[in-house]
Amino acid sequence: MQYIWMIIKGIIIGITNVIPGVSGGTMAVSFGIYDDVIHAVTHLKSEFKKSARIIGPLIIGAILGIAGFSYFIEMLLVRYTLATAVAFIGLILGGLPILWRSFQKSMVQEKQSMNLLHLLFFLIFFAIVAWMAFAETGGATGQTVSLTFGHLLALFFVGVISAAAMVIPGVSGSLLMLILGYYYAVIYTINQFTGALSSFDMSTLLPFGTLLGAYALGMLIGIILISKAIDYFFKTKPTFTYASILGLVVASPIAILTNTSAIPDLQSGRSIWYYLLTVVLGIGCFLLTFALGNTEDTSE
Predict the structure, then answer these.
(1) Please, are residues 128 and 248 in contact by the beta-carbon 8 Å criterion?
(2) Rounded to two decimals, what is the model's pTM?
């Protein structure tokens, strides 16, 4: 049962990673598995079996989420923007009680009490996400890439940067790619690759598979590098790390609302039933995340 829960969490994390404004790292925090995942990535060699039990189901779920639900979620964001955005906000906020408990636990273990420095770290990282939420994004929706050294190198570095952002709670890797101007190029590459794979079109599969490989390699390196840094801070400055993560997570709803058409949808004059459904979805997703996060306590 533990692995099934981890796959479900991986599916939701996979879906969130392709939506600008939503952070996969935030979802990992909300599910109460963030520090375990960071530890598993950084100790994959020394604790292979233990790490594989955490990373394996999450990767399977993430692949299922990206491949099976991304188009569906994007359709919902277009047709039912407010309801979908509120559902994601509910998923994120549902993890705050778990994160707060972890913060308090670290304070007890470190024999510290909350002070102005904790508040400062909270506010700084809150401001980072708030700035990203309102940052102008580059790149046209029809942006494409071709198999050239320049595009390979660009996709590699975009992979490094976006993966590092995906690991940090509250920072959306997809939003960062939009700011860099490469979000639609990456989506185009993925769509071309999956389309060629389904039709066994080798003339398209090979070049776009190579481009996707460069991006994937960059993501792998980015995840390893930032995970090691975060693992170090968890070990040496846990209370300030949790205070920073709280700032990132609390600011996430701002990024979701500003990077979707949720506000215009709220003002569009839909039926009362739509707004009631939105409220129910938000509460339901909050409770779902809270329940999924608490499964970690029973599965260890």
Answers:
(1) yes
(2) 0.69
Q: What are the start-end ranges of the H helices in 80-172? A: 81-93, 96-109, 116-134, 149-167
Of 254, 233, 30, 216, the C-alpha closest to 129 is: 254
Structural tokens at position 181: 């101007």
Contact by Cβ (8 Å): 94, 30: yes
Q: Which of 162, 163, 117, 123 is nearest to 250 (CA)?
A: 123
Tens-digit pLDDT profile for residues 19-46: 665 667 777 877 778 888 888 888 888 8
Length of the chain: 300
What pLDDT digit, counting tens, does each position of 246-281 carry?
A: 888 888 888 778 767 788 888 888 899 999 999 999
Ranges of the chain with pLDDT below 70:
1, 19-23, 67-71, 73-74, 133, 135-145, 164-166, 170-175, 178-181, 184, 259, 292-300
* Neighbour count for residue 167 (Cβ, 10 Å): 26
- CA-closest candidate to residue 80, choices 261, 287, 300, 288: 261
Would you state the structure tokens that stand for residue 253, as one six-digit string?
A: 């709803």
* Distance in angstroms (rounded) separating the CA atoms of residues 197 and 191: 10
Sign of CA pseudo-dihedral 103, 38, 55, 192: positive
